[in-house]
Specification:
By secondary structure, the chain is an alpha+beta fold. The protein has helices spanning 14-23, 30-43, 90-104, 119-127; strands spanning 5-8, 46-53, 55-67, 71-81, 110-112. The protein binds coenzyme A.
């Protein structure tokens, strides 16, 4: 059943990562995903991991950050499992791998922000030991 393996993403995974990003609600051209992967890699302090079962069926993005007011923390910046693969443990395994990466970077805290609409994802994170610490409103402004 768990016939997938977790490994760091390669730029050649960009098409599969783009397709999964669309399932997460962020449709992005493959070329842009490639540029972002290279940009994240060049900045350091972050990892993209994939679950591969012949093809890439899930990915997680995690990064280390340093908050002026509360110190260092790691953040799961994105996680998606292919619809056909959900409920088989790939998400849990990717979160565990991201936590291992964070621990190796010296972090003692992992944060994930999740849209209020993703109720099943919230149950998933709670089952994995994540605790709601606050609720926020997100504001965006486009700069001209
Ligand atoms: C949330 C998600 C990453 C979990 O990965 P997964 O591999 O399906 O999860 P696991 O098999 O390790 O664990 C199963 C649990 O995940 C949760 N879950 C959330 N959405 C689910 C779905 N569509 N199908 C199955 N399980 C889901 C449930 O709590 C489930 O437990 P349950 O079967 O007791 O209800 C995955 O379902 C997904 O990609 N969802 C859509 C995108 C999303 O919400 N991403 C998180 C953004 S913060």
């Amino acid at each position: 059943l768990n016939d997938w393996a977790i490994r760091p993403a390669r730029v050649s995974d960009a098409p599969a990562i783009a397709a999964l990003a669309a399932q997460l609600g962020y449709p992005s051209p493959q070329a842009e995903i490639e540029v972002r992967m290279e940009g994240l890699d060049a900045r350091g302090r972050s990892a993209i991991l994939v679950a591969e079962a012949g093809t890439v069926v899930a990915w997680i993005a995690v990064r280390g950050d340093l908050a002026l007011e509360s110190g260092p923390y790691a953040e799961i910046a994105g996680l998606v499992v292919d619809e056909a693969w959900r409920g088989r443990g790939a998400g849990e395994a990717l979160v565990a791998a991201a936590e291992a990466w964070a621990r190796k970077q010296g972090h003692t805290r992992v944060r994930v922000r999740s849209n209020v609409l993703r109720e099943r994802a919230h149950q998933f994170y709670e089952r994995l030991g994540y605790v709601v610490t606050k609720k926020q409103v997100v504001f965006d402004k486009l700069l001209r």
